[in-house]
Design brief:
By secondary structure, the chain is α+β, with helices and mostly antiparallel strands. The protein is 59% helix and 13% strand. The chain has a 3-stranded antiparallel β-sheet with strand order 1-2-3, covered by helices on one side. The longest helix is centred in the C-terminal third of the chain and has 48 residues, at 79-126.
Length: 127
């Protein structure tokens, strides 16, 4: 799996702190803890308001910007694409396993029903 991408140098993006919006009440709405990054060469604009802390939002925004730039540069070979493909394969495998399990259970029920019906018929013939 590829390493995590390094954030771009600070000269390549502008950073602004905005007031937050949405749930969280007065604390979110009054403080400027949301971070907006604009990558100048590509024009990517990213706004992050995941946490109440400005420093955590800055760190997360830089990480997300680095991932987006890597996806643009590397495409299917980027870390995000590789991780997504791996998750998709795992999910597909789990779904197949689940289908096999329930198919086997249904077949076992059908066998039980047919055996019970055969026994009932034998009992009816003997009486």
């Amino acid at each position: 799996m590829p390493d995590k991408p390094k954030p771009p140098p600070e000269s390549e993006f502008t950073e602004a702190f905005l007031k937050g919006t949405g749930p969280g009440g007065q604390k979110i709405n009054k403080t400027s803890s949301a971070v907006q990054l604009k990558h100048i060469p590509t024009g990517i604009v990213l706004k992050v308001q995941e946490h109440r802390s400005r420093s955590q939002n800055r760190k997360l925004a830089r990480q997300m910007l680095a991932e987006r730039i890597e996806v643009l540069e590397k495409g299917d070979k980027s870390r995000v694409a590789v991780v997504g493909e791996t998750k998709k394969k795992r999910k597909s495998s789990a779904v197949k396993k689940s289908k096999r399990k329930y198919r086997a259970l249904d077949e076992a029920k059908e066998r039980e029903k047919s055996i019970a019906a055969a026994r009932k018929e034998e009992g009816d013939k003997g009486a």
